[in-house]
Amino acid sequence: MKKRKTYGFLIGFAGVIAVSIVLLWPLFRHGFFITDDGDWMVIRLSAFYQSLADGQFPVRFLGRLYHNYGYPVSNFLYPGFLYVGSFFRFLGFSFVDVIKIIFAISIIGSGSFLYLALRKKYETLSSLGGAASFVLSPYVTFDVFTRGSVGEIFAFLPASMLLYGIMAHVYWIVPIATALLILGHNSLALLFVAPLWLLVGLQPKPWVYIKGMIIGVGMATFFWLPALFERRFVIFDRVSVADTFTYFITVKNWWLLGVGVLAALYILFIRRAKFTAFERACAIIVLLASILSLPISAVLWSSVPSLSSFIQFPYRFLSISTMIGAVGISAAMSLVQKKSRIYIFIIMLIVLGGYTLFQQTKIRYSDRVEGYYSTNEGTTTVKNEYMPRWVQVIQTTRASKKVEVHSGDATYFSGKETPQYIDGIVEARSDSIVQINTIYYPGWGVTIDGKLIAIDYTNTHGVMRVNVSAGSHRLEASFRETGFRLITDIISFAFGVMYLVWIYTLSRRS
After folding, report:
1. Is residue 62 within 8 Å of residue 48, measured between CB atoms?
2. Sequential DSSP letters for 116-139
3. What is the pTM of this model?
């Protein structure tokens, strides 16, 4: 009997990999598929890796972007896939291949953790059906091949890990999954908070999960707290990145709702008495998330401006319904007879697999050289929404020199220059002003002959200018952690130690 269970378990895993390959096979083609965000994510990764390789950690300011004037995008937007991608880049993969690897790991990993979670409650075929409904869902296909949303796809991995931790009562994975979800994607982390807390409340020991989540939030403090605190430095709140009301699910794209909605309706309104409180809660989550993606919820989006600001696209709620909907699919399949279950599974594979393959026929590819990504200097954001507020005039070209004499009689002799470090000699024949063609952002410091001096960034371009007295001087400029950021780094480290102690405590009790 034990061998049969193990055999069935492995067959399920093989099935997850098989359905994942159906979705991912275009990744094996040479070049990169054209999407809304894909190329920009590759460019951001290349700039992030450059800053990381030059010694900046945590990476917050990408010096190569914004025409080599620098841009603090990684201080605000989901750096999770960038850290993981930098590891694979270090191993020698091209930037395009790294993004493909992240897509593959995220999809296969998400499907596998979902299968593990579902297998704790349901038999093999029902569990595989739930996992397959996620992997081959129209929304995931849309996210990969239309939007090219690497951050969202990567965030599905820790979200599925967290669901597994809840359903399988694997406490130790909860903090890691929570921290990775926050680093994986800001918006999805916010979206998943309420439904996951609801599911945690239905567990035998909810406070154990809550404690694990709190530790995970603490471990990610180095990212989320500066991102919130330093929003006052950038124009994000002044910019409308997207017209929220054009991104609802309508009759033109209704299929993105997926099959999880049908299972939720079945659970709540047809066979409600047959399902557990946990399954009914999952069904409610799926329906509510789906409703929030529809025009019927426009009143809510209008009355809560912060919802539009943080979430931006109503259809992002489908990330919840698509993943949690896998529970409903498995629960519904488990109620029917084995023969009918097989038919349902086959029909679902044909429909979802057929849709995925059809959408893949529309994919267009580009075959750009590596240098296109590793030298591109765009901001990688839609409307430069993380530009510091003191930048009044946007630069459209790169400066001819990284450091130049703005006024006075002086000559600058360039030494070492990296995205976050500048070292050179100023020969000033009179008191002068030297301009560093990098936008100022908290963390930049300039020294003259080893002494920290004031930076003037009140000019229209927001670049750094310093006063240099007559004589020969060594000028150094570098980007480092501010005192506040250093505190958040220490907090994250402390929670990391707390996590290790917590694991040890759990192991002693088991």
Report:
1. yes
2. HHHHTTS-HHHHHHHHHHHHT-HH
3. 0.94
